[in-house]
Amino acid sequence: MVQALRDMNIPCATWDIDRRVLEGDATGPGAALIIHVNAPMLPYVQLFMPRWLRTGRRVIGYWAWELPIMPQTWRHARRHVHEIWAPSHFTAQAFRTLGRPVRVVEHPVGLAEQKPSDRDRASFGLPEDCVIVLVSFSLSSSMVRKSPIEMIEAFRAAFGDRSDRLLLMKIGHTEHYPDDLAKIRAATGGATNIRIETGQLSGADRLALTVCADIVLSLHRSEGFGLVVAEAMALGRCVIATDWSATTEFLDGTCGLPVPYTLVPARDPRGIWDMPDTKWALADKNAAVAALRTAAADPGLRSHLGANARQRIATRLDGTTLREAALAVGIQA
């Protein structure tokens, strides 16, 4: 968001919450304050902000949530903001019960230039002569919500032990969730065509890894936006994704392979998304298997969908909602 605002010539200063270092008030007194942390953390973050930064301004909370209903623990944060921005219509709907204006401000993935590094398959130790299916997620986002076990099962059902098919799983923050990582490793059954990578990558290298993939797979239970999907589409990749939640706002059958689903109670052993009174999606395994086989066998289809995906992101997530939101709260270039 910061880079997009600057690309629009809109003055923008940042406050680094981790280091608590003020970059500088480039906008002057009275400028709108966008606090880009979720509701539960908002009051604590404000404690570390100087009073002059918090007062006399329109305070905007930019929040993301991945279920149709917002947790009760988020409601207290409404008194700390004048309005709420959300990265998708799906997420925004959950916030409309708060009695604050809610505005959809999508991540401007199409506006930000995607700059992969020059690393290729060889530099990542990946084979040249196989179809690579990439799964990329962080365990801090909940293993159940990201559905890695289901994606392993779909890949194994689609391709078995074929050496010309590789499932590459790039998993972040594994050091904090060793039990989850152990479950994922166990689910692979020692398959030689499944590779798990847990090392840190720079942003440019992460994008380069995406470019190395033929297919990007996301059988998520729910997404509040779907940055992995959006970035993969912006890079012209063929994406297979659950046809539910925020990703449906930019991915459809003309630019990807949506997977049908069944709605099931939202249960999360970690507790963050454990709201069984609401539902999220369980992707149809047979449909996912069929989509994987179809995409893997047809490079022409992958190229066609990838080209359409790149164009969709360039036009659909071009920063328009961010520009309009900035103007609406009095921020001008």
From TrEMBL:
It comes from the Bacteria. Pfam families: Glyco_trans_1_4. Coiled coil: none annotated. This is Mannosyltransferase. The lineage of its organism: Bacteria, Pseudomonadati, Pseudomonadota, Alphaproteobacteria, Acetobacterales.
